[in-house]
Amino acid sequence: MVTFLAGGTGTPKLLDGAGEVFAPSATTVVGNTGDDVELGGHLVCPDLDTVLFHGGGVIDRDRWWGIAGDTTETHAELHRLAEAAGLEGGPRYLPAERQTAGRDIANWRRFSGIAEFMEIGDRDRAVHLTRTSLLDEGHSLTAVTRRLADAFDLDVELLPMSDDPVATIVHTDDGPLHFQAYWVHRRADPEVEDVEFRGAEDAEPTDAVREALSEPVVIGPSNPVTSLGPMLALSGVREALASTPVVAVSPFVEDRIFSGPAADLMRGVGREPSTAGVARAYPFADAFVLDAEDGTELDRPVVRTDTRIDDAADAARVAAACDRALEAVGA
Amino acid sequence: MVTFLAGGTGTPKLLDGAGEVFAPSATTVVGNTGDDVELGGHLVCPDLDTVLFHGGGVIDRDRWWGIAGDTTETHAELHRLAEAAGLEGGPRYLPAERQTAGRDIANWRRFSGIAEFMEIGDRDRAVHLTRTSLLDEGHSLTAVTRRLADAFDLDVELLPMSDDPVATIVHTDDGPLHFQAYWVHRRADPEVEDVEFRGAEDAEPTDAVREALSEPVVIGPSNPVTSLGPMLALSGVREALASTPVVAVSPFVEDRIFSGPAADLMRGVGREPSTAGVARAYPFADAFVLDAEDGTELDRPVVRTDTRIDDAADAARVAAACDRALEAVGA
After folding, report:
1. B84 to chain A: nearest residue by CA?
2. Do B84 and A150 touch (CB under 8 A)?
3. Which residue from A minimizes the CA distance to B120?
4. How far apart (Å, rounded) are the C-alpha atoms in residues A71 and A256?
5. CA torsion through residues A195, A201, A203, A204, sign
6. Which of A42, A125, A151 sits opposite B85 (nearest CB)?
7. B27-31 and B2-6: which strand pairing?
8. Shortest CB distance from A137 goes to which of B94, B134, B136?
9. β-strands A27-31, A37-39: how paired?
10. pLDDT digits over B246-269, tens only?
11. ipTM tops the 0.90 cut
């Protein structure tokens, strides 16, 4: 048994070839929910959906989000309506007293859907609509995610990190922004001053997550701050990781990064944007997989390989390195 | 100034040619909201939307609902997901304690969106999404409808009958069904035993509706029970109609009907399914427009014309008859 912690695109890309090394039926994926939003009445879980769509063989492989070939009829009409009615676009954050009306899980991340600021495809929207309807019928996000995994015929088990709301709020020189407002609407332009995981102090990992974290854990090359950070902000997750073998793949090659906002975010939270900084952010990691060109010296076992992941063969190579690293620490 | 009461397709079809007789800028349309549903988190207002889409020149003229040429990508995927996940379709009515969570206006008509039992087109959905988002931002249904009317560039004023929830519940030999469950899902098959307008005793017409009802009123050939009934169930509407000139077009030709469920519904509420029955249901009507072949003798002034409406020219002919009937009662 092995458990992957997944957020953003780093770990999902690793999962693309992990099945060659770790049997899917013995693999659990715990997904970040810190960057979820409720948009226009529907709970959107981008990091769970990337795993769902990948597992279902429908992910858009150019973007690593959304469904390949999806249409955007509703999205386009939302923009037409807003423009014709003189309604301003951009993230329309609902007032505090409206944040949880009807759904506690929406807290700190509820946006009106007028001129929808994130592009939601038409088939993609059906997933959010089904998810939200199941929540409204009284099921937990964990139970709902299992149903969706059935619908996409996933061969791994997919779990949200928590059934409680946690919202990644990026504090910037332009004020606090929900992660999606920072990343999608503002294109990571404002300067990051800090990152907050609102709700994390009261949120719990689910029993299913606690059980999954009693197995060896692989942390893929996801962004440590906003893809992994919300999970690590849960004390229950930190405690569990401290007592199980953990291998982490650095998303950096020394101080260079393949893609994404990790460097700005690491700097923003006062961490060095490098493999060394990642190692300090993951005190619970027992071993690391680093790029062959990454000469960083760490105080823990290291397995080196080419860590660039462009396709499933790359992913299988990095997964094999993770397996060797787990062996090195006796898992 | 003239005010039309609209529900179903009868009055909207009349509006298709009414502009030839009544200046659109001096015309108000009050729409039935008794058959609204909240479906998958979005408030769907079929009778308001028929007027919106007709006014915007985009209505599907074969069905007289929905947008011409609309796609149904989300709807199809909702059904695929539900089937793949083993989730039962059909109306999934949310439990009582969930009916108003977050939105009072949803009361008695909130359905989960799993395997969505009404077909919502992709562009159509953008209307419901924008409407619901504006409601969530704190606007009344009246204000929201004005915004949507702007978006569709309507030349008449469109008002919902009330900003309060009223739900048309059809009591049948198979138990109580929300009107849309009876009409769309069950295709009007169960035997009608009674029709209830839940919430009507506490609902108020808006100030804008009261003002509109101080002008001469035209009731088109809509179904008296479920298209007009919810409006007439509001004491404020009945009082207003009693003191203004009202002309009604019978949807019957004696005891025959052009289309729709009006006959079954009239019988179900103990009324004669005929022009005579309509006249008794509309005690506030001061004159009637009947079909040229309708020999019903009424105790109020009658103008006769061919009342079948297949196109805008037909509609203009019936509208002209309404105008003559209003003149006959001194309006």
Report:
1. A151
2. yes
3. A74
4. 36
5. positive
6. A151
7. parallel
8. B94
9. unpaired
10. 999 999 999 999 888 899 999 999
11. yes
